[in-house]
């Protein structure tokens, strides 16, 4: 239990999180679930137990339930273990074998962005993603960069009706007038 606490407690770094998750696999704790007492013994900060619906639910109801094998702390559920053996978030399983998707998870997802142009790019791509898979957007990312002037927000702010028409004709991006005009 102490070994688990050393790997997980207070971890902010992604690589250390991956090491901690790997330790859970090796110790046989991942997938078995941890109840409140087990979490306290390991030093893991408890954020609540979720049931198989994914909702924390009423605390009294939750505390009254016995620990079950399918329950584990929210921050450890669910995971995807691709062939490279590095545990990742379950949404990576939507594109097994897609190196770009895994690279996005490893290098970008959940990381702070300080550059204004990169932040503008992320905001725009999130808007275009609405109703679509993130994989679709990532596959079109270079076309979006070309179409939207490298996401230079000064240049994009100057776009007019001719640019909207040009973007609507660009098969490399998502051609949705509402999303383009937003």
UniProtKB/TrEMBL annotation:
GO biological process, alphabetically ordered: base-excision repair
Lineage: Eukaryota, Cryptophyceae, Cryptomonadales, Hemiselmidaceae, Hemiselmis
InterPro entries recorded: Adenine_glyco, DNA-3mA_glycosylase, DNA_glycosylase
Residues engaged in binding Zn(2+): 89, 105
UniProt KW keywords: Metal-binding, Zinc
Top-level taxon of the source organism: Eukaryota
Gene Ontology molecular functions: DNA-3-methyladenine glycosylase activity; metal ion binding
This protein's name: DNA-3-methyladenine glycosylase I
Natural source organism: Hemiselmis andersenii
